[in-house]
Structures are given as structure tokens and as C-alpha cells.
């Protein structure tokens, strides 16, 4: 259920990345700052149902594509605090439902103006971590990552067919109904879990603290070097990943000159590699921890370093390969496959240092 929620969330998040190609006619943006309005289609191929095309400049398209992250960033802390206070199930389900409903309004919002296109999903990831801390035994967290909480994972690839705003929003609303019916906050409240499994999970998590109440140790958090290390590393990694998630379809269309159908298929290949990489990296990390080959700190540092350095090298090479679409897809796939190693590093390290 959590993986399905992330699939829907990524579909909602990237709906505009695909839709903006159709909204702007699939051609490179003009350099002017024209107001959004239908433009002539004399040099364009016939479009289904005569959908309107908007002459948005490069700057306007950038504002539209980045608008999601404004609301996303502002609601992160609110989502984490609310999930600790009210429970991850309620906060995640409510955030996903609201985001799905807003996505349904995207086509109408495009007619009303660029400023209406803003997203709200920041509560989803903190709520996922709150649930994960109550359900995942410590020695299984890395291998559960690609199933329960796949940051890029296969959900990005699988969500490409849903990336039209109307389909993504409709599926999201339907998924939220299933979420509220079948998901439970913790093993103790689940009516169908076996007694053995409940005892195994609860006993393995007995050493960690409970979720916070109304107060938070904000001062201690602000002075914690591990917190800052994770925050900076996550910023760098997420910058790379979300830049690709948001801009890759436009890059495929305007630079590599794929048509929209090829764009969706080829853009999914790096995320397939990313999902498989998350599975292998998680299994390897848990194996190293279970066999005591490396300690927790060493595993987190090694996987984070490799997962950040190698993809950066591959992306630096991309501008120098000319217009070779094959080489570009190969490098992007390698970059997003290897960056999945951070899933067993910084992306799980939050729970290591602060179980609450």
C-alpha cells in the first residue's frame, strides 16, 4: 500500500513534466515573456480535440515546473510534526488526497494562468518515515526500502502512464480510499497480522523511543552535526534526482528530439535501473550489517559516497557527447541506477540517529 501511494505521488509530481510538452506544443520555448494564451498551430501536427497550446517562455515553463516544490518544501516540517502527533496514516492519506484533488484542476488552472499551478505533497514523505519506524525491523530496513519507501525507485517508471494530470489525479483519489480502509498505524492495531509477526516487529523495535508529543528538541536538532550532514547530503542528492525527474522529458523532446511517445518510454529507463539498484543496494547493505562485515556508520558512509560521486561524474559527461541519444540515455540510466545506493545510506540514516 505504501509503495502504491508513492507510485501515485510520483505520478502527481511529474504530471506537469509530461503535460507541459503538450501544453506548449512540444517545441523549444521562445525567449520572450509572453502571457499564457493559445497560440497558432499552423506549423504543428494535428492535436487531439484541438487542445489549446500556450506560448510560455523558458522562464515561465521553469516557474511552472518548479512551483510544485515551493509548496512541497514549506510542508515538510509540518508533515513530520503532524505525523508524529496524529499518526502517519492520517497525515499521508490526507496529503495524498488533497494533492490528487488539486491535480485534477491542472487543465483548468492552465487556462486561468500560470500562478494557479502549485502543488502540495510535502507531508507524504515525513509521514512515510513515521510509519516505517513503527513497521520495519532494524536489520530489514535497507531491503524494505525499495518496497515500502522508494524515493526514485520503480514507482517513477511505473507512473509514466499516469502522468497526465486527469489520470494521475483520478487514480490518486481512488488510491486514498484504499489507503484509509486497509492501512493501520502500527502492528499492535492491525487486525489481520499474525501473533508471531506482531511480536517479532514489536520486540525488535522495543529499544527505540516512541513518537514525539507536542514538544520537540529543536535546539538539540539544530546543533547536531549528523543532522546537518544528512540534510546537506540529501539536498545534493535530491537536487540531482528531482532535476532529472522534472526536466528529463523536456530534454528528451527539445534536445534529443524524441516524440512524446518515445519520450515517455525512454525517460522511464533510468528509473527502471534506479528501482533495480535500490533493491540490490538494500539487500547488500542488510547483508553487510547482518554478517557484521561493516558497522552501521561505515555502511551508511560508503553507500552514500559512491551513490553521490559516480552519478555526478556521469552527468558531467552528458554535455560533451553531442546529440547521441543512445549515449545520453546510457549515462542517465547509469547515473540514476548508482544514485540508488544512497537509499541504503543517507535516505535511511534519519532513523538510525533519531528513532523518534
From TrEMBL:
<keyword id="KW-1133">Transmembrane helix</keyword>
<feature type="transmembrane region" description="Helical">
    <location>
        <begin position="265"/>
        <end position="290"/>
    </location>
</feature>
<dbReference type="InterPro" id="IPR050382">
    <property type="entry name" value="MFS_Na/Anion_cotransporter"/>
</dbReference>
<dbReference type="GO" id="GO:0015293">
    <property type="term" value="F:symporter activity"/>
</dbReference>
<keyword id="KW-0812">Transmembrane</keyword>
<feature type="transmembrane region" description="Helical">
    <location>
        <begin position="225"/>
        <end position="245"/>
    </location>
</feature>
<feature type="transmembrane region" description="Helical">
    <location>
        <begin position="164"/>
        <end position="184"/>
    </location>
</feature>
<dbReference type="GO" id="GO:0016324">
    <property type="term" value="C:apical plasma membrane"/>
</dbReference>
<dbReference type="GO" id="GO:0006820">
    <property type="term" value="P:monoatomic anion transport"/>
</dbReference>
<feature type="transmembrane region" description="Helical">
    <location>
        <begin position="81"/>
        <end position="105"/>
    </location>
</feature>
<keyword id="KW-0732">Signal</keyword>
<protein>
    <submittedName>
        <fullName>Solute carrier family 17 member 4</fullName>
    </submittedName>
</protein>
<dbReference type="InterPro" id="IPR011701">
    <property type="entry name" value="MFS"/>
</dbReference>
<feature type="transmembrane region" description="Helical">
    <location>
        <begin position="302"/>
        <end position="321"/>
    </location>
</feature>
<keyword id="KW-0472">Membrane</keyword>
<feature type="transmembrane region" description="Helical">
    <location>
        <begin position="327"/>
        <end position="348"/>
    </location>
</feature>
<feature type="signal peptide">
    <location>
        <begin position="1"/>
        <end position="17"/>
    </location>
</feature>
<dbReference type="InterPro" id="IPR036259">
    <property type="entry name" value="MFS_trans_sf"/>
</dbReference>
<dbReference type="Pfam" id="PF07690">
    <property type="entry name" value="MFS_1"/>
</dbReference>
<feature type="transmembrane region" description="Helical">
    <location>
        <begin position="112"/>
        <end position="131"/>
    </location>
</feature>
